[in-house]
Amino acid sequence: MMWKDWYWKKSEFMITLPFLQKNHTGFLCPGFRIFLVGLLCLGLLNVPGLVLAGAPEMTEDRAFALAEEFGVDVGEVDEEIRKILGLLKAEGVVVFAVIGNTAADLAGIKSKSIIKEVDGMEIHTILDLGKALEKALPTQNFSVATYEPADIDDQGIGGGLNFHLVRIQKE
Predict the structure, then answer these.
(1) What span, in angstroms and rounded, lies between the C-alpha atoms of 117 and 119?
(2) Which of 1, 119, 146, 167 has the fewest CB atoms within 10 Å, measured from its CB?
(3) For residue 127, how many other CB atoms are within 10 A of its CB?
(4) Domain coordinates of the chain in residue numbers?
(5) Which CATH architecture describes the domain 60-167?
(6) Which DSSP string corresponds to 77-118?
(7) The model's pTM
């Protein structure tokens, strides 16, 4: 199927909408474009293949800063952490510490947990966590799925997957 790209440029902000067919003869009035941009910025409209030019690239430093804003000190699961926690593979993001009286603390997230998902987005790396938190934190209400390995004292009991509802408190 042939696709047509529509561009709208304002300053350095460009949106590519590849979902309009090539033979589309309609045109987007300015009011509808503003409405579409609002939905995109709020995360209420998800368009596969969407390119937001001008959006900052996610870096590890930014991902760690967003995690700290959320209230967790995190790192990627490496081979050493995999052995300590008894995980099958070295993948994901581990919570080293939870900062008191933050959204993460109030949601019940615990240290030694592996963050598996944030608001429906799977987490495999620290960059995945940064991208998910960047999208979820402004909403002020989102979910976090964590895997909590069993303690040494819990003989015969495996770890469990927990879902935490996060609510950012307004000051």
Answers:
(1) 6
(2) 1
(3) 17
(4) 3-53, 60-167
(5) Roll (2.30)
(6) --HHHHHHHT-SSS-SEEEEEE-TTSHHHHHT--TT-EEEEE
(7) 0.65
